[in-house]
Design goal:
By secondary structure, this protein is mostly beta strands. The protein has a single domain, classed as Porin. Strands 1, 2, 3, 4, 5, 6, 7, 8 and 9 form a 9-stranded antiparallel sheet that branches. Strand 8 and strand 9 form a beta hairpin. The radius of gyration is 18 Å and the shape is elongated.
Amino acid sequence: MKTLIRSFLLLYIIASVSFAQESIEKGTIKLAGGISYNSYWYDDENYKDHYDFSLNPQFYYFVTNNFSLGTYATYSYAKVYDRYTRTDIDLTPGISYYFNYRNIYPFVFCGAGYRSTYNDYSFNGTSKSWAYIIKFGCGLDFFISENISIEPYINYTTIVKTSTVKRNEVRIGIGIGNFIK
């Protein structure tokens, strides 16, 4: 946790001396990607809570100043207590809104999408499942140049319909964004 706090402070200092911006203008495209640490917990006591890391590419188009539509994708792979491996692939269309404060842009986002999961059980073969998901969260874009930002974020995902057990997730991540005007 201390490392996370130090990282945020370092990002704040870097952002304080970087380029100032007004708003993220209509027509801007955001291409971003990140890595996140994920915590899972289940509504079924037969499943153990666990953790993993994931890759999170993003694409957003600003339809008005500071407001964008786009998609958030996730690829995660987990080995769960030597019992099985799980691969998740999410595709979540969504919206985001940015607030501008100097060169720091806090943002909120939400979306609803689809998840495909593949499980490989060491004791009982494989399974595939799907789910509808709802994702929402917040983050900060610290601009380190006119178009490049460092982006710490946190999001919450819940599975609203699934062919398996219900699962909830929290992701804490860091990424880099390219804002193309």
